[in-house]
Amino acid sequence: MTAVEVHAVVEGPADAPVLLLSNSLGSDLSMWDPQVPALTERFRVVRYDTRGHGRSPSSRGDVTMDDLADDVVALLDRLGVAQAHVAGVSIGGMTGLRLAVREPQRVLTLAVLCSSAHTGNAASWEDRARTVRAEGTAAIAEPVVSRWLTPPYAADHPDLVARLQAMVTAADDEGYAGCCAAIAQMDQRPDLHRIGAPTLVVSGAEDQAVPPEHQRLIADGVPDARLLTLSPAAHLANLEQPAAVAEALIAHATGGTP
């Protein structure tokens, strides 16, 4: 499948190291808004919308992790970026894992947040893809977002919950379903030992969408990877623990200890 020319926003000093941020399934690049002020003090921050999300074009049919990695390579090439620090949440983290295995020369450091190398529930992802293709992303917005934040945090931030549900609903139906297929088909466990980039794995202790054992598996499989567990935090830990995630990303990419 041909790479998609994804929509991207570039912020921060032109001569700073590049930090690429990849969004979660169903969200768009705005999910990183809480981290941008701190990150742009140190990095040239490149945020992009995964294909079929936000302002990025969609593709028809199922996609693979290689397709999503191809989109990132094409974006870096378009921006003239030879190497970047890479961080991603959920499917963004999965994309980062694939990129680090396939394109090691492009990845300076890797941060994988609330993600998995193998979800182990392909049937549920295939079911979700069928639902979205039949009824649209609006049909799954509420249950999906209910797992993104811990219940107390969601209760205290109803405006954020509404915005996140609208974000999921805005995702292209076919694009979202295609990405579900990529997750269903994915098994990156055999390749984890091949990742040479310094790797930080971030886990949300209360994440029901991709529970902490998935992050432990990645941290155990990637040589010398470090695991950071945040609590309270569910699937979008960067929204619930914005300062802690920003500090961890900065420390990791600058050679410190998160």
UniProtKB/TrEMBL annotation:
| Protein name (database record) | 3-oxoadipate enol-lactonase
Molecular function GO labels: 3-oxoadipate enol-lactonase activity; triacylglycerol lipase activity
Asked if Hydrolase is a keyword of the record, the answer is yes
Record flagged with keyword Hydrolase:
yes
Keywords from UniProt, A to Z, are: Hydrolase
Indicate the enzyme's highest-level EC class.
hydrolase
Q: Which SUPFAM superfamilies match?
A: alpha/beta-Hydrolases
What EC number is given for this enzyme? 3.1.1.24
Protein species of origin: Modestobacter muralis
| Xref: Pfam families | Abhydrolase_1
**This protein's superkingdom?**
Bacteria
**What InterPro entries does the record point to?**
AB_hydrolase, AB_hydrolase_1, AB_hydrolase_fold, PcaD/CatD
Report domain AB hydrolase-1 positions.
Answer: 17-241
GO BP: any one term? glycerolipid catabolic process
